[in-house]
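user: can you give me the structure for this one chain? tokens are fine.
assistant: on it. calling the predictor now.
[tool input]
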Amino acid sequence: MLGLKHLSIKSKLKIMLLLASLGSIIVVGYLSWNKSREILTERIFSQLTSVRASKAYQVEFYLTSLRNQIETLCENRMVVAAMTEFNREFDQLKQQSVPANWDQQIEAYYTQEFLPRLAENTQGTPVFETYQPTDTESRYLQYHYIANNPNPVGEKDELERATDSSNYSQIHSRYHNLFRNLTQRFGYYDLFLIDSETGHIVYSVYKETDFSISLYTGPYRNSNLADVVQKVRDNPDLGAIQLVDFKFYRPSYNAPAAFIAGPIYDGTQLVGILAAQLPIDEINNVLTGNQNWEQDGLGDTGETYLVGSDLRLRSTARLLIEDLSTYLDVLRQSKVKPEIVQLIEQLETALLLHPIETVAAREAVAGQSGTQIIPGYYNTDVLSSYAPLNIQGVNWGIVSEMALSEAY
């Protein structure tokens, strides 16, 4: 500064002009950079919103298609006939005797096959007495179609007809392949015929431990399958199809399951309920673009996911698919409870487990749409576009996001 005193006025003016010019350049540069950033931000938000809207439409269309399928099946004459015949022959099984060795074989199946698999995916130790079938007809059918079924776990549907001589098994052999083909064609996890008076599952395709059990009085009376059946009973109008949200479903070894169901009428008489157990695969395929995020314009870090009213995922997470080990480490660093991380690792799904307690998730399930730069669920800033989904029976939000570090 002392040197400036010895400069001429002309030199001082040159320096002042130079500093003013540099200041102008810096200000103009900053304004230009800021404007470019705003334009880029708007472009990315527009891209995310476009992806979000497209995925929302596809998910809503898929679930609408499922409703239409179930409604059509409920009115199908073959389904009506099957419901009536299974109800009749199931009721006749009350007269059957169940030898002690059959009960022993049922218990052996539960303790050796079902309960160990269930224990892997639950906290605590499940016991046979909690899930034990007690009705005569339930014990009879679980012996013939589960415990004494020669096919391994996961393939019990291969048995078309049990070795007994009951009319039930005759009816089963008549309809089983038809329902099995329907289940495979439409991509259901399982399909059920349920007596609306007693709540008994008088037929299922895959013969898990809910088969033959009453959803009104049995061990699964608090399940979401029981919930959807109750919804149908509360609104039994022809064509009124009900959907319930995902919950952990114990007959499927505590895997997440959602259900859709509708009433079956023979003329004006309600004869039963048709229910389908829904897989998550189709929804995940839609949201991940069959795991082609880059083709959807989501780059290396972007993804679209669903969140429920409990602020838990209703779909998969991109990092879980791409690198499970890193995903689990991120959850631990995010202070997710160790038992939750362990369950995610065991089930290899984040559905119903991964907490998404972000601004976007809260806004979406509250019925709000918008775009914001917010802290994401990985504790990194993200550009987020969110909205509620329009699906009767569930309160889900949809979110499309990309890491801020990738955007800029």
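assistant: here you go. Strands lie at 190-194, 201-204, 242-249, 255-266, 269-278, 303-308, 370-375, 381-388, 396-403. The chain has a mean pLDDT of 93.
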